[in-house]
Description:
The complex is a heterodimer of chains A (291) and B (411). By secondary structure, chain A is mostly helical. Chain A contains 13 helices and 1 strand. Chain B has 2 domains: 4-242, Rossmann fold, CATH 3.40.50; 248-370, Coagulation Factor XIII, Chain A, domain 1. The interface between A and B is large, with 46 and 53 residues.
Amino acid sequence: MQAVESKALGPRAVAAHPNGVHRIQPSRWLVPVDFHELWRYRELVRFFVLRDAKSRYRQTFLGPFWAILRPLMTIVVFSAIFGGLAGISPEGNIPYALWVTPGVLAFVYVTTALTNTSISLVQNSNLITKVYFPRLYVPVATAVTPVIDFLLGLLVLLGLFLYYHRAPSWHIVFLPAFLGLAALIVVGVGLWLSSFTARYRDVVFGVPFLAQIWQYATPVIYPLSLVPQKYLWLLYINPFTAVVQGFRWSLLGLPFGSLVPLVASLSIAVAITASGLFVFRRTERIMVDML
Amino acid sequence: MSNLAISARELWKQYRLGRVESGFQRLRRRARRRAGHGHIWALQDVTFDVPEGEALAIIGRNGAGKSTLLKVLARLTEPTRGYVDVAGRVGALLEVGTGFSPELTGRENVYLNGTLLGMSRRDIDRRLDEIVAFAGVEEHLDKPVKWYSSGMYVRLGFAVAAHLEPDILIVDEVLSVGDLAFQQKCLGRMNEVAGGGRTVLFVSHNLAAVSALCPEAMYLSDGKIRSRGPTREVIDRYVDDVKATARVDVRDRIDRHGDGRLRFTEIRVGTGSAVRTGGDCEVSLFYAGTPGAGEVRVGFAVYGALVEPIFQCLNETSGDIISEIAADGSFTCTIPKLPLSPGHYTISAYCEIDGKVADWVQHAAVLEVVEGDFFGTGRLPSEAHGTFYVDHRWMSEPATVTPIQLGRSAL
C-alpha cells in the first residue's frame, strides 16, 4: 500500500497488516467478485440453509409432508387433465403419471427457489443492514434450500415406481448434474430478480406468475414430440428444457433426444449467472441505503 | 511512529431525502420537469486517523453523522466521495445478536452469528465454552432460542460479539442492553479488548461510559468533525454546545423502548442558566401522543461515571400522582438544592401508563452541573471527593463534659 499524503494530517499511512489493508471507497462500474472473501465466509451457506430449512415449515400442521403433498397433488391433477382428458400420450410407453413426475419435481423446485430467491434480500434486510458479509450468499443459499424439499419429493417418484413395478434407470447417477444445472439457472435469474427487488417490490407479484408461464413453455406436461417442428427452436432456447429432458433421461431412462437444448441451456445458464453477478455486485454497494 | 489502523480521507456521504420513487412516478416527474427530492450530506469532508491500539469514542447529537460513519467503516454502505484505509479485519457490532433465528438452537445461533461477524469455524469451536459461560446459558445451549428469555437472548448475542477477535472493533451503543451486572461485564470485556492493543471505535450517548473506556474522542456535528483529542476536552466542547441550546430534541431517537402511546419529544434541563450545585434544578420532559386516561409513572434516572444510575426521580416515589394527561404536554420535575458535584451526567427518560412502558429513552439528555455554594459557606469540597454533597453538622465532645456545637462546616 502506498503512503497517503494529506495536507491536514501529514504523511502517515496505514501500513501493511497481516490481515491485509482494505480500502473503502466508492466502487467502480464493474465490481469484481471477491472469491477470497467468499471462501472465508463459506460456512454461512450451511447456516443459512439450516436456518431456512428449520423455519420453513414452522407453524404448519403437515410440516415437511408438504414437500411430498405439493408434487403429488400436481401429478394427480396433471394426470387427470392432460393424461386423461386431453389424452396426451408420452414417449416410451410409460404411464403418464410416472412420465410427468420428473418434470413436476423439477418445476416444484424451480418455482419455490425462484420465488424465495427473488425476495431473499428483502427478507434478510435486518441482517444486511447490520453486518457486512458477502451478500451473494443470501440468494445462493435461498436457491439451495428447496433442494431438501426436492429430495423428499423423490419419495413420490419412488412410490410410483413401486406402483407401476418399474425401476429407475442407471442414468440416475447423473441426476445431481441436472439438478445443479437447474440450480445454476435459478441462481442466475434469482440474482437479477433479487437485485431488482431491492429497488422495486413489483417482482414479488410477478415471480409466481413468471414461474407458472415458464412451466408451460417447458415440455413438462407435454412431450417434445408433440411440438410442431417450426416452433421447436423456441423450446430449445428455454434453458429449462434441457433440465426437464435430463431429469426424464436420468430417472426414467428415456432418450435425451437432440443435444441442442443442453448446449443452449448451459450457455444461457452461464450467461444469466455472469450477468446476474454483475448486476448483483453493482446493487450490493447501494443495497443498504435501499432496504 | 506507531502504525495507523484507520485512515479516513475527505469522506463524503450523500443520502436522498424522502421515499423511493416508483419508476412510474419518476417518469411522470421528469415529464413535468420537476426536480426530485432533496439530498443531504450525512458526512462532509471527514478526515481523521486512528493509530493502532487506540480506543476512540465518537460522540455527537442524533443526526450528526455518527451512524453513517460507522456504516461506512463497517462496509455496510459506500462513501459518495473519499476513502478510508483500514488495517486488518473489522468487526462491527451495530446490534446484539445479529441474525439470530428463533428456530435455531443456542449453539447453532452462536455459529451463525459468529460466522456473520467474520469468525472462522475453528475460532468458534475454540471459544464456544467461554462464550456459553460468559452468557450463562449452559443448560439451554441445545434448545431453540425462541424458548430463551429476552435476557438470555441478549446475553448470548453479546457473548459472541465479546469474543470476536477483530483487529478493529466497532461498537454502537450495544451497552444499553441487559441487566446491570451484565452491563458491567460488557464494559469490563470492552476494556480488556481496548487494553489488549486492539483498536476500538465506540459510539455512545453515555458520556460516562465513553470517558471510562476511551482516552480519545471525536465529536461530530452536522456531518463534520468538530473536535478531536483527549476525551475530557472533546466532551467539554460537546457539552458546551449542548448547553448552548439547553434543550435536547429526542424525537429522532430510534433506540427507544415502549409501545409509543406517548413519546418524549424534547428534554429541557434548567431554566436557561446553568444548573448549579446546591441550586434548584428543573427537568422538563416534553411529550406528544394520545395517552388517554391511566395511571402514569414518569421519571428519569441520572447517570454519572458508572453504568448504573446514581439516582432517579419518579413521580410515584415522590407521591405526585398523575392519573390523566393531555395529548401533548410536559412533565416537570423540580429538585431543590441539587446535591450533585460539578460535572456532566446523562439523563434517561421513562414513562409508563397503566403498568405498560410507553416510552423509554436512555441517555437522552446531558445534565451539566457547575459549581455552586451548596453549603452556604462559600467553601467547596475538592472535586475528587465524591459525587454527592450531603448536608451535615459536626460537633466535638470532650470525654466527659457537655458537647459544644461547632457550627456548620464544609468537609
